[in-house]
User: Fold this.
Amino acid sequence: MPDDLNRDTRRLASLFPIIERYQVQQFRNESDCKKINYKRGRFVSTKATNGSGQTCGWYKIESNLFDEQATRDFQDIVDAVSSSGASLDWIDEVQFESSGSIVYGHFYMNCFWCNKHYVYSRNYVNLPQDVPNNMWHTAINKDWYLVDESWH
Assistant:
């Protein structure tokens, strides 16, 4: 398992240049939900029509349908993810320092019957506390840790 964790984080880290170039804070590429929140704004593939106000995980947050530029930018990221070999569905909570470098982010993997994601937190000092029977944290290295959550 440690080799898998290191392999996954190397693949995810290879995406940092494109994430930083576009200043991607959120990205999701699933069959029923494609969205990006980046330097040009929030864009989604479809908007809610059921009156809930929820659009692809954004509740009552203004977003636009993909325009041509957002479509090209989104595809650039999809292509980079594919080339990296990372089995990635979505990215969330990305934070940047003033230079544009990533300092924090959540990376959710595509895995059936699991609920895990990697957290990049540059030079973190302490792992977050586990939540008994619900959430566990595993240190990988000085910048990455794994969060595994129960489905219950």
In short: The radius of gyration is 16 Å. DSSP finds three helices and eleven strands in the chain.
